């Protein structure tokens, strides 16, 4: 019989594995050329890991099914679009606003005049994105507080759609005091964004070397893992899981429902916003057309595939689905159908492939690739008393 | 214990008389669900350091009444005061923080948490770490977590659970152990008033007897006031100092076990009219 104490010992082994994986992840891009396509896909995959870990806080820990996660991707990306590009060119009487930026972001390379628009340092943009999305997360949380289960999913889904629709139609919404600038550029996209730059280091140049973007993404992943682990093993993490298991009992034991739920929404949203801002920089464009419902489902699929609530599981799930979607299907196996004499490409089937994978997973490993330790124990030892004893009546 | 300040005064010389003899006072409390009157105009009070029972046939409104005392339901009319403070409009977590803890009729442990974690959730209202505290894990939070962990172990030990049980998932525990964990979880919030909803359900006479002794021990050692809903008349008559009988949401009798047992309306409610 494996108890949690034994599992906790094996956690040390987990840390060693984790450190080795991190070391590998750090040196890994050096084996490829600076502009290699696989590195490019890896940057995207790492950003998705951050997204999935963020959603895992809401869905995995607190058990609040969120189908509108794309909203936080959008708000994060727009934080980058608004505060790190020429978009608000009227700002400061067309002289531009510059906060702790240098190089291309501060000065036009041709005329050596200050750039127009708002240009804020990348790290500050991240903070702005985190604040805006945490706020948005609480706003989406408020109407769902009285709801449970499926109803939460519907409200969050609607929230995601509202934000997406606002983004698409944002080119009709004037922003006051900005000389007729609009909220978003709709499907025209806000582009280009400032190149990413960090203190001390030279400005990144996407045209010659994308490795630095990879390392920044990796740093965000490490930060997100830190947040996930710390919170899971804390008073707040216990409250989230208690809430997921039995809301009435949790409230009766002194867990404030509103506060605890809103903190889950805000934390999950903030991590999504952080990844969104980074993706905005990396893709170098913020296009309203990309903020679709399918994105929310894609990230949710990562969480479920990896194992709800399981931090390492979600990392693996996010990497697996990202690489399948952005590397294996378009780059490796795409022309298999045509080689077989069929007149379609594999990318056209990508959702079918995901669906198939999920169905297979649910049959073979219903609790995910790496199940949360709790669910694992439950599945291994869940005999005897049974769940009916614990859940008979909902007050 | 961590909350020495909020605990009931130790029964040494009562230099300043306590604000009220009763720890909890409910006045003309009613609860209406749509057209159904679940609890109707009930007056009820619990003297400090007493053990009081509510009995009644199934559907008499006992659990509904419990749920109002703990904030899960708001009374349709009436007032409830705990230790002099009105709690009728308070949230459940606030009421727990004030010092009311409960168990459930159908055990409601957090199934995929360990026994220990369940008890630590019970301590939630007495701990302080917030989002940023948990992230930074400063010495203060570390100490708090360590103490919370120790206290949870202590509670499990107090209710008579072996050390190995602490790391088992609640769902994998035997029925009797689940009941004990639920009591430990309730005790972890340092309550003054403990509400037990049919604690002996599913127990054999020996186990019920031990639980009865344990209730007295709780009252004497931990200075707890206990309110229980119970069907087992042997337990009720053996442990309670006062019994309140509900039927169809109304209080039909109240008094010491002997007089209630002989009350005509009570016999009618249980056995029907002759």
Tell me what you see in this structure.
- The complex is a heterodimer of chains A (395) and B (274).
- Chain A has helices at 4-27, 37-61, 70-83, 122-144, 150-169, 211-232, 235-245, 247-252, 257-283, 293-306, 311-332, 336-339, 350-364, 373-381; strands spanning 84-85, 97-99, 118-120.
- The model of chain A is unreliable at 382-395 (pLDDT under 50).
- The radius of gyration of chain A is 22 Å and the shape is globular.
- Chain A has a domain at 37-294.
- Chain A has a 3-stranded mixed β-sheet with strand order 1-3-2.
- Chain A is an all-alpha fold and 395 residues long.
- Chain B has 274 residues and is α/β, with parallel strands linked by helices.
- Chain B folds into 2 domains: 20-99 and 191-274, Rossmann fold (3-Layer(aba) Sandwich); 112-190, no CATH class.
- Chain B is built from 10 helices and 10 strands.
- Chain B has a 6-stranded mixed β-sheet with strand order 6-7-8-3-9-10, sandwiched between helices. Chain B has a 4-stranded antiparallel β-sheet with strand order 2-1-4-5, with helices on one face.
- In chain B, helix 3 packs across helix 5.
- Chain B is globular, with a radius of gyration of 19 Å.
- Chains A and B meet through helix 6, helix 7, helix 8, helix 9 and helix 14 of A and helix 2, helix 3, helix 4, helix 5 and helix 6 of B.
